[in-house]
Design brief:
By secondary structure, the chain is of the alpha/beta class. The chain has a single domain, classed as Sugar-phosphate isomerase, RpiB/LacA/LacB (Ribose 5-phosphate Isomerase B, Chain: A), CATH 3.40.1400.10. Helix content is 44%, strand content 16%. The chain contains six helices and five strands. A five-stranded parallel beta sheet has the order 2-1-3-5-4, with helices on both faces. α1 packs across α5, α2 runs parallel beside α3 and α4 packs parallel to α5. The longest helix has 13 residues. The radius of gyration is 14 Å and the shape is globular. The structure holds D-ribose.
Length: 147
């Protein structure tokens, strides 16, 4: 059982996959902060990328999961916040490297791009892989200071 809270959100294009991914989080014992969307009704992906970014900034969750149709728009939205390192993931190796090298704190999927079983595998890998630190820590630090 983990004491970690994971924030999760999607637009309509990611709504179905979001619900599948919530089951993985629940099975692994994470607390879930679901920030919407709540239906397949058309909404604007930046609102949901910003919602997860805000939850991490406020300390309401330690990591996040985002899904839109392609994964692209919601990644751009989340990554506008310097404390967010959102990684758009298509395979398990990418999920692993996003943690090992980038200390990614948000995993992103395209609900119209990836099958649910692969996305669930990627999410498990993301949650179970620790940041490697070392030479990568200096680079990750620079991501928080773009100026
Ligand atoms: C919504 O139709 C779609 O544009 C959105 O989910 C996402 O793919 C944007 O990047």
């Amino acid at each position: 059982m983990s004491s970690e809270t994971i924030a999760i959100a999607s637009d309509h294009g990611g709504f179905e996959l979001k619900n599948e991914l919530k089951q993985v989080l629940s099975d692994l014992g994470f607390a879930i902060l679901d920030l919407g969307a709540d239906s397949m009704e058309s909404v604007d992906y930046p609102d949901f990328g910003y919602a997860v970014a805000g939850a991490l900034k406020q300390g309401l969750a330690t990591r996040g999961v985002l899904v839109c149709g392609s994964g692209i728009g919601i990644s751009i939205a989340a990554n506008r916040h310097p404390v967010i390192r959102a990684a758009l993931i298509h395979d398990a190796l990418g999920a692993k490297l996003s943690r090992l090298h980038n200390d990614a704190n948000v995993i992103v999927f395209g609900g119209r791009m990836i099958g649910p079983d692969l996305a669930k595998d990627c999410l498990r890998v993301f949650l179970e892989t620790e940041f490697e630190g070392g030479r990568h820590a200096r680079r990750v630090d620079k991501l928080s200071n773009p100026e």
